[in-house]
Amino acid sequence: MTIAIVTDSTSDLNPELCAQHGIVSVPLYVLFDGKMHKDGIEITPPELFAGLKAGKKTPSTSQPSPAEFADVYAKALESADQVLSIHISGQLSGTVGSARLAAQDFEGKVTVLDTGSVSMGLGMRALRAAELAKAGKSMPEILAELERVGREADLRFTVNTLDFLKINGRIGGAQALLGGLLNIKPILVVKKGRVETGGRVRGHKKAVQDLVDYTRKYVTSHGGARVTFLSTIGGEDYVQEVRAGLAGLDFTDLGNHSIGAVVATHTGPGTMGVTLEPL
Fold first, then answer.
1. CA-to-CA distance for 203 and 255, rounded, in angstroms?
2. Pairwise pLDDT comparison (222 vs 59), residue with the higher score
3. pTM for the full model?
4. What is the DSSP string of 162-188?
5. Cα–Cα distance between 84 and 91 in angstroms, integer?
6. Model confidence over 143-201: pLDDT tens digits?
7. Tell me: the pLDDT tens digits for 94-126?
8. Distance CA 258, CA 273 (A)
9. What is the four-CA torsion angle of 133, 139, 145, 148, rounded to 10 degrees?
10. What is the mean pLDDT of the chain?
11. H helix intervals, 113-225
C-alpha cells in the first residue's frame, strides 16, 4: 500500500526538498499589481517586497480551486494507492476546504488533514508524513503520529510590524498588540489554528533571546526536538543570531527556510522564527 503526500505552498518547502521527499506542493495565489501569481512559481518574496517599496498596493492571497487539487490527486493515484493531503490551518485559509471538496470525488482514496498550522509548522508535518510513508506505515499509523506531533508542536516568530497581518485579517488573538510602544517586538505563536500573542519585548536583541530561551526550554523538556528556522528578507541575520544562541544544544536541525510569497504577504519583511516538534 503506497501513500502519496500532497501539501500546499504555505508549507514553505522549497522545490528541491519536495522532490527529495516525493511531496507534491499545490501553489496558492498572490493577487498583486492586478494579476494572480502562483506562489513560488510566478512570484517570490523579493519581487513582492520590491513592488511594495515602489508603492504598489498591498497584495492579497487566495487558495487553489478544488479542480486544481483534483488534478493533483488523480495524477498521484496513477502510481499510489492513497493520498494524504496536508494543509494550512482552515482558520487562516480556505485551502483545506478546497482540498476536501476535491477529495469527495475519489471514493475514500484521499485523506485531507488540517494541521492547524502554517509555514514550517505545516512543512515539518508533511516531511514527517513522507518519511513515514516511505517507511511503509499505514494511513492510520501516519495520522496517529501526526496527531501526536501536532499536540506538542510549536511555531514561534516575530515580525517587524503587525500591519501586514492586520491588513489581510490574519491577526487573530494578536490584535491586543496593535498600537504598542516604539521598538516593541511582538512575539507571536500559532495556537489552535490562529495567530496569537506570545508576548512582547523591546528590540530585536530581546526578540532573538526570547526565541533562544524558548527553544532551549522546549528541547530540554522534550529530551530533544526537530527544529527549523524561518525568515523573510531582512530576518536572515536574526536567524543566525538565534542559531548562535543555541550553540551546544543537542537537537535535530532541519535547516533554514525562506518564507514564501503567500505567507510573506501576511508577515512582511524582517520576520524570523522557529518551528519545534517532538522527536
1. 25
2. 222
3. 0.93
4. SHHHHHTT--GGGGGGTT--TTEEEEE
5. 20
6. 999 999 999 999 999 998 777 766 655 545 445 444 455 678 889 999 999 999 899 89
7. 999 999 999 999 999 999 999 999 999 999 999
8. 11
9. 150
10. 92
11. 120-134, 139-152, 163-167, 204-222
Closest CA to 67 of 103, 39, 41, 22: 103
Integer Cα distance of 203 and 225 in angstroms: 27
Q: Which residues contact 69 (CB under 8 A, 6 or more apart)?
A: 6, 26, 85, 98, 99, 101, 102, 103
Give whole-number Cα distances, 208 to 180, 199, 257, in Å: 19, 13, 17
Give the cell for residue 142: 501516519
> Which of 131, 106, 101 has its CA nearest to residue 23?
131
Residue 54 burial (10 A CB sphere; 0-12, 13-18, 19+): exposed
pLDDT for 167 = 62
| 226-231 and 252-258 strand pairing | parallel
Contacts of 158 (CB under 8 A, 6+ apart): 185, 186, 187, 188, 204, 207, 210, 211, 271, 272, 273
